[in-house]
Design brief:
2 helices, binds zinc ion, six-stranded antiparallel beta sheet, alpha+beta
């Protein structure tokens, strides 16, 4: 999985880039506590957390659905707000193993 830092809410979870299996939009999801953000402003309150189905902020599809997945590099590059932040050095994209298998 690609992640952009660590979660300030739980303190330990990597903030993974999650791709919605239904609409393809990317969001930022803590791999540990499931806090969810629609942008890189992860100092702000998450749009949701600890919801069982983790609805996609764009289409409402579940981010835990089997078709949803940790974003691939190409998907990140195709997502303007994320790639722009990486290019500008506002965020560092890191790669690592998820805490739990998919
Ligand atoms: Zn967390
Ligand atoms: Zn979606």
């Amino acid at each position: 999985m690609y992640y952009v830092g660590f979660c300030r809410i739980c303190g330990t979870g990597p903030l993974g880039v999650r791709a919605c299996g239904r609409c393809g939009d990317l969001s930022i999801l803590c791999d540990e506590c499931d806090a969810l953000w629609t942008n890189l402003n992860t100092q702000s309150a998450p749009v949701s957390s600890r919801e069982e189905s983790l609805p996609c902020p764009s289409c409402g599809g579940s981010l835990l659905d089997p078709s949803s997945h940790w974003a691939r590099r190409g998907e990140i590059a195709a997502t303007g707000w994320l790639q722009q932040a990486i290019t500008e050095g506002r965020v560092t994209l890191q790669h690592g193993a998820p805490l739990v298998g998919e």
